[in-house]
Amino acid sequence: MFTGAVGPLGIGIATLWLSLIVLLPLAALAFHSVSDGLGTFVDAITAPAALATLRITVVVSLVVAAINAVMGTVIAWVLVRDEFPGKKFVNALIDLPFALPTIVASIVLLSLYGPQSPIGVQLNATEPGLVVALAFVTLPFVVRSVQPVLIEADREVEEAAASLGAGNFTIFRTVVLPVLAPAVLGGTGLAFARAIGEYGSIVLIGGNIPYKTQVASQYIQQQIEIDRPVNAAVVSVALLVIAFVVLFVLRLVANRGLRREEDDR
Amino acid sequence: MKPSLAARLSLRFVALAYLFVLLLVPIGVILYRTFENGVVAFAESISTPAAISALNLSLLIVAIVVPVNVIFGIVVALALVRGRFPGRGLLQAVVDLPFAVSPIVVGVALIMLWGAHGWFGAVEDLGFKVIFGLPGMVLATIFVTLPFVVREVEPVLREIGEEQEQAAATLGANTWQTFWRITLPAIRWGLTYGIVLTVARALGEFGAVIMVSSGFPGVSQTLTLLVHARYIDDHNTFGAYSAATLLMAIAVIVLLLMTLLDRKRSTE
After folding, report:
1. How many CB atoms sit inside 10 A of residue B159's CB?
2. CB-based contact B83 A11, cutoff 8 Å
3. Which residue ranges does the record assign to the ABC transmembrane type-1 domain (chain A) (predicted)?
């Protein structure tokens, strides 16, 4: 049968639903971004304020991704290979940033690093403030992608390397890291993609200062507010393209990893 | 790899210190600030008319979004797993799309489609206000929560295969009977997990909703919008902390449910 166990009706409904909810709004957005011609698109994307906001967004997200790559791997390693009282609690804590609404993340961090900071650390409306907020909401990505790989990893190879006289650093670099690399990269990429579009967690602590701490999502929101929908649409499309490219590259890398694994067998 | 005790302890210290500074201390501070004036002040702050109306609106959106996502999520998952048709790979990619789109961009896209000057702007002339109305907030929430049910149900459907359904059909059951008696019981835990994720995200969504809401206190403010408005517009820091603590309590309940369900799923 051409359609399998689901009738053509089911397939039709599924396609229509996804089109109406997801594809049509994005199509309208893309259409709107070029509705005044390509010249306007180029002007809007090369406007100094737009370029500045995209630069801030990408730079801050790269910093956050790098922090996640290192700290996420360390946390995953400690959660898998180390034993200490309260480990289960710490493990459950990792998912908290995903469960917490982003605006709550923002206000939580503001209570510690904001104007009324009890420790006297003011990160309100600074770039480090953005980094802390984004590190908070993207924490689970690398930890949760590295953890299962570490659990599955073959420790005999590590022991063999150790018995052959390899030091810890050598073992980590030549045995452990190659196994973990795809998972670290995958988690880091997801964290980056999430960071460039993030809004709720930075809206209170970011300060929204143009050319300094205004990220792309805030710029888009502001352009809608001052009734410049084309500018908003253009920068939105730019954000979408960056996210898609990152996720596409990740899929390519993951597929290559899978193929290599199959070749090894 | 057997790191020395010193190396192991320092790694443990670094990991725990990071989590402590990033997660625990801020949450501790906000809990302290919320309850430093006593539980009564907190209770009063989350039971003002505006807060009650925000809670009601949030729950109303959840009550609309969950059934819609369940019905269409199951249909989409069935089509992706059981359907053989050209363009299935494309549909597969569209389901993941909401994860890659910034909440603000979701809001802008909805304005471009449903807003007064959008492609479907004509519905507003018919008296059906989407943007700056409840339908817009619902559409925004459906957009961001769409993948959850599909992605939790899909692997279960793939795992159970079609044999039991075919057997039921051979024995004379019609499509509905087969679905209610065979398919639905098999996917129930995956579906429940998907619903929990949907509820959590629907209650917590901020960026997409703020773009399409008029944001009037007591009318079109959800709980997340209330937190924002209290802090920014009213300079009511304590009120914002209280509302955030309420949302945090809901999130912790969700987290506990997820852990329980996860155990349930893996033991079956």
Report:
1. 11
2. yes
3. 54-250
Specify the residue for token string 């995903």: A98
pLDDT band, residue A1 (cuts 50/70/90): very low
Question: What is the token pair recorded at B265?
Answer: 């799923």
Is pLDDT above 50 for A250? yes
B227 CB neighbours in chain A (<8 A) are: 103-104, 107
Which residues in chain A are contacts of B143 at CB distance < 8 A?
21-22, 25
Tell me, what's the pLDDT at B147? 94
Query: For chain A, what is the mean pLDDT?
Result: 88
Name the minimum distance, in Å, from the CA of B137 to any CA of chain A. Answer: 13
Task: Give the number of beta-carbon pairs within 8 Å between A and B.
Answer: 269
Chain-chain contact of A95 with B258 (C-beta, under 8 angstroms): yes
Determine the distance in angstroms separating the CA of B101 from the nearest CA of chain A, rounded to an integer.
Answer: 6
The residue among A260 and B56 whose pLDDT is bigger is B56
Nearest-Cα residue of chain B relative to residue A118: B29
Comparing CB atoms, the residue among A14, A79, A199 nearest residue B75 is: A14
Confidence of residue A205 (pLDDT cuts 50, 70, 90): confident
Are A233 and B206 within 8 A, CB to CB?
Answer: no
